[in-house]
Amino acid sequence: MDGQGDPELAPEGRRHAERVAERLRTERIDAIYVSTLRRTVQTAEPLIARLGLAARVEADLREVHLGSWEGGLLRKMIAEGDPVARRMQAEERWDVIPGAEPAEEFATRVRKAVKRLADEHPGQRLAVFTHGGVIGQALSLASGSRPFAFLGADNGSISHIVVTGESWIVRCFNDTAHLGPIFGRSAAPLT
């Protein structure tokens, strides 16, 4: 979609989405946001069904554009020790990948999206279904850390930031308790 990979959720992703919804079903959630990529919509669907809220689309929550490495090549290139992948990790910049989104543009996009949502929902709690790169960037901005310090959020994990005016506070990163003790392999069936 617009040059970015837009695969559907795998069966494991759908199981994770159910567990996320079960975990959040008793929380006060005032609005649900998704990106323009369908996997966020599919991940949000079980919670939408439980809470009766409609998802709102925030285009700036879409994943970082990986240029010529779209379509799953990032993991492959990292696993193979590709020199560009090593440079990307060392410099903590996506834009060393040919055609990838410039690092500062990505950070600015994520900052504006989070600020816009916070400004539109003062005092409210949002469930935002987004992507690993966006989560990592938002938490980096909130904590003032290195750009890639929070990369690696597990699929279906929950991270929590509080935004009050110009103050962003990290409350939680990569909570996977709801996914079960061996979620990455063969999680127990949903009940």
Considering the chains and any ligands shown, give keywords for the structure:
single chain, 191 residues, alpha/beta, two-stranded antiparallel ribbon, 6 helices, 39% helix, globular, disordered C terminus
Structure description:
The chain has helices at residues 11-24, 38-51, 73-79, 83-91, 103-120, 132-143, and strands spanning 31-34, 55-57, 126-129, 158-164, 167-175. The chain is α/β, with parallel strands linked by helices and 191 residues long. The strands form two sheets. It has a three-stranded parallel sheet with strand order 2-1-3, covered by helices on one side. The radius of gyration is 16 Å and the shape is globular.
Q: Which sequence of strands runs across the widest sheet?
A: 2-1-3
Low-confidence stretches: 184-191
Shape: globular
* Strand-pairing-aware structural class: alpha/beta
Would you summarize the structure shown here?
The protein has helices at residues 11-24, 38-51, 73-79, 83-91, 103-120, 132-143, and strands at residues 31-34, 55-57, 126-129, 158-164, 167-175. The protein is an alpha/beta fold.
What is the topological layout?
Blueprint: H1 11-24, E1 31-34, H2 38-51, E2 55-57, H3 73-79, H4 83-91, H5 103-120, E3 126-129, H6 132-143, E4 158-164, E5 167-175
Parallel strand pairs: 1-2, 1-3
Antiparallel strand pairs: 4-5
Helix pairs in contact: 1-2, 5-6
